[in-house]
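cron nightly-structures :: item 1 of 1
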Amino acid sequence: MRDPAAFETFYRRHAERVSRFVARRMTDPHTVDDLTTEVFLAAIDTAHTYRPDRGSQEAWLFGIARNTVAAEQRRVARELHKNGRAAGRRPLDADDIARLEERIDAERAARPLLSALAGLPASLRAVTELVDVDGLSVADAAAALRIRVGTARVRLHRAHRRLQAETGHPILEGTS
């Protein structure tokens, strides 16, 4: 992705969905902004690895976003006791903060589902998050996770069954 105009088009097409993906998983506006930027920087660096036959651009980008968010969560877990999280960040103006706080608030409704999903094994949780929370198709979720579509469907069904057994209510049936 060396063409600035092509990247700008790509960015504009996907930035909001990526930012919403991150906002569902992070509560700090600065972190949401930083990680969204990191996703697109990683996309530039790894554009040569994208293969259309393995999934859509969005699926590929959500795979990058999952990895970026997971890396941040691991980093935070390792450095929880350290201070200075604001050091080295670009200052956000009031409009940036307000926009990101609105996005975080808008995504707040998805957090209870993410919390319920936390009890699932990682393989079931990953496909369920991408399909039921982030709105990807099963095929795109499979591509993002680098698994077969059939495997993704089975994992999604198992996750729905487990969540229904735990809550006593159908969980997002019909979304896959």
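cron nightly-structures :: done
The longest helix spans residues 4-25.
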